[in-house]
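Section 5.1 Outputs to date
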Amino acid sequence: MDNKTSILVIYTGGTIGMTKDQQTGALRPFNFDRIYTQMPELREMDYVIDCHSFDPLIDSSDMNPSFWVQLAEVIEKNYESYEGFVILHGSDTMAYSASMMSFMLENLNKPVVFTGSQLPLGMLRSDGRENFITAIEIAAATIDDTPVVPEVSIYFENQLYRGNRAHKFNAEHFEAFLSVNYPVLAEAGVHIKYHHERILKPNFKKLKVHKTLNNNVAVLKLFPGIREEVVAAVVGAEGLKAIILETFGSGNAPTERWLIEQLKRAREKGIIVFNVTQCKGGSVEIGKYAASLDMGKIGIIGGYDITTEAALAKLMYLLGRNMSREETEVLLQKPLRGEMTVGQ
């Protein structure tokens, strides 16, 4: 009987899966059915590596809720057959997809590692090869038959991040991601050093996959000089259920009366307003400064140190569960998958 660790590689599209055509020199999608031929070093890992490629492949800029449901279904269908999953994904929206998978896959007790690259696998200097190989190693890692990283993560350029804590900050460097408000889960050098105390613990419950998402959400970024007509247009959008309000600093906004009146109008329409800081580091504290005091009074809720990507994913997930606004707002302020730190 073959007791080798088995990993499912899921290729959604993106830069990592491109290789150069030997005849034309043009980049074309990598054939993952021939993965051992194209990457013979994988044989040395002594794992069973199977591949699932989406057809058609999707550019990560075209990522959308229906694709997230398909991705979650692939994991659900294969969950019992594999010890871990590696998702090859374009880096542009990887933080959104990793955040979304963390919420959709409730009671996840196996590694789901997102990775990709800034240069295609078929290029000589590609960062994709190391990212891919190390992501597989992380997905396969166990201690006493228990996965080392049983959560959704992103591996990129020697760093393993919690998926719903990371954001893409650089379009050119190999170090494309940052996680300012939560330390890395692992670092890969000569050895992979895991920070076990930072990693979510398995609960050994049955996987529950949430497939109903509600994308009646808007992101409204405040800026000096923002016009009332712009805010009013967002608040008045047909069917809108929630606004992620990207504020200044620790949750501050202009103190002009019209802004509070528009946000109050949103609240009266039953719209959730979720206050998230534009800063990549730090936390929202409504009421810390006078500039955020009025927002607290009209029922705007703070997102602590959550990223915009995770806030969007969490809202789509929670709104899809058809709870009352009050229940949704309570859960928005609680860490469900390690996506926020409440009380510094």
